[in-house]
Amino acid sequence: MIRVSNLTKTYGPRAAIQDISFEVGKGQIVGFLGPNGAGKSTTMKILTAFMPATSGTVHIAGFEVFENPLEVKKRVGYLPENPPVYLDMLVADYLSFAAKIHGVESNKVRAAVDRVLEKVALGDVRGRLIGNLSKGYRQRVGLAQAILHEPEVLILDEPTVGLDPKQIIEIRNVIRGLAGQHTVILSSHILPEVTATCQRVIVINRGKIVDQGTIEELSSHLHKGLVYSISVKKPSPDGLKSIQTIPGVHRVTDQGSKWMIEMDPNAGEIRDRIVDVAVQKGLGVLEFRSEKMSLEEVFLELTTNESPEAHA
Amino acid sequence: MKRVWNIAWRDFRAYFMSPIAYVIIALFLFIMGWFFFNNFNFFIQSASRMNPYGGGGTTPSVTEGIIRPLYGNMNLTLLFIVPFISMRLIAEEKKMHTMELLLTAPLKQWQIVVGKYFSGLLLLSTLLVPTLAYPLILGVASNPDWGPIFSAYLGTYLMAGCYLSIGLFFSSVTENQIVSGILTIVTSLFFWLISWAAYSAGGAWSDFLNYASLITHLNNFLRGVFDTSDFVFYLSFIFIGLFLTHRSLDSYRWRS
Ligand SMILES: Nc1ncnc2c1ncn2[C@@H]1O[C@H](COP(=O)(O)OP(=O)(O)O)[C@@H](O)[C@H]1O
Ligand SMILES: [Mg+2]
């Protein structure tokens, strides 16, 4: 249903996302998990044809977003980070406007509005001014807007951000209720949120995909060790062996220009030890770095606490 | 076209959800009433005195004595009023993040631009309709030439349409409505006043500056003269404004 290939978006010299590729099958609910600034919103803006990518392609229901934005927009419902609601409109008026611009035929607008109001449990505020509603209700109005035209794909950017715990539970229930009828991508920086709602998770950090899979798959990856690489000026077999014998190092492999150092899981912080040994052995260290952003490191940056203050 | 209308109508209604439309309408009608009253009085007085225009016993026509100055003043007033109509059109949507709704709905970008523009024209019409009272009063009091009155409205509408087009563009380049309004006034004034420079610039430059000035083309309409080239000028001017707005939305999408 959704196929993203090598997507890159740069702002000036900085890449917000880099070479992102993933697929989402029909009817899945996929979580897009990553800390703030990871590139979640950027990716979603490109998927909805709101913003063009710098390079790469996105196919939704067989249409490429850049070449065929109208066809994509017809099939996608989008709830941006800030619910795109007009504060000076009544809930029902807003939804009928949204229905019309999404191509719902005039004689079906009313029915569509009634249907979504019921789905997101907003019936009791249909005649209220949006500006007078709480954040949780506005978010639900935004969600209602996204499903008005019965899109095949739903893209929800941090749908629970800024809500209180009760509202969060309500919104999640609404989203779970939408599964099955729509293919859903939902972004979040809150770990329990995706574990509670999604079948599959794509973990993104600093614009790159770190890992993807089911929750179980991710937690099995989680216990693999970290990998560092070291480049040295004067490599020697003796030096390599010395590093290998440091407690916590699982294996060292010579890759020509650099050595890859695989760590035992739960090795602790021993990077200083590795560098000390390399210096003692007179290897001439040129570079020492973490080779792959490990899932642990990403998860450390994620919010694991559900209360909204935790990430204020 | 239906989508254009959906957008235009929503925006038009939104004007009346805040005091802004009422303030604009009241202010405009007050100023115009003042102009009309004074023009009318002045005309009556000068007509009842000795005819100052020499020649035979003819008094200045209603067209010359009332219509031209009245609608000239109306155009100058609109130059300061229209930016208040245009300033919110896109700036507000950017600020409130509702632009994302429009830009991810299955709409073509020009439908959004034209819809917004039409909502401004609707409010403009709401301003202008009550001023039809002035020609009607003249119709009761005398026997005016209806041709120039019609053409004065047409010219005014086109000219205000140019202000609106400038305003829509500036509303799309900034989220700050005040900045957008000020830039609109300055730019509109610029296109009024460049004909002044035509006197000192000579030759081809003078012709060009005269042609590029909004006011030059209005004068024909106020005299009751229809000239296709004036139409073409105004419509092109409006088109360029809408085109630039469209481009500015493109770049907004690239950068957001
Ligand atoms: N309009 C912009 N101009 C420049 N940089 C931006 C812009 N929008 C986002 N970025 C940068 O791109 C990166 C990804 O941002 P974003 O996609 O909003 O992250 P997330 O939604 O995961 O919090 C961030 O480093 C952010 O600073
Ligand atoms: Mg974001």
- Biggest sheet of chain B, open or closed, and with what strands and sense? none
What is the average per-residue confidence, as pLDDT of chain A, rounded to a whole number? 88
CATH architecture group name of the largest domain in chain A: 3-Layer(aba) Sandwich
Percentage of β-strand residues of chain A: 25-35%
Task: Please render the helix and strand layout as text.
The complex is a heterodimer of chains A (312) and B (256).
Chain A: E1 2-11, E2 14-24, E3 29-33, H1 40-47, E4 55-60, E5 63-64, H2 69-75, E6 76-79, H3 91-101, H4 106-119, H5 135-147, E7 153-156, H6 165-178, E8 183-188, H7 191-197, E9 200-205, E10 208-214, H8 215-222, E11 227-232, H9 237-244, E12 249-254, E13 259-263, H10 271-280, E14 285-290, H11 295-301
Parallel strand pairs in A: 3-8, 3-9, 6-7, 7-8
Antiparallel strand pairs in A: 1-2, 1-4, 4-5, 9-10, 11-13, 11-14, 12-13
Helix pairs in contact in A: 3-4, 4-5
Chain B: H1 2-15, H2 20-48, H3 62-86, H4 88-95, H5 99-104, H6 109-128, H7 133-141, H8 146-173, H9 177-200, H10 203-212, H11 214-222, H12 228-255
The structure holds adenosine-5'-diphosphate and magnesium ion (MG).
Adenosine-5'-diphosphate (ADP) binds at residues 11, 16, 34, 36-42 of chain A.
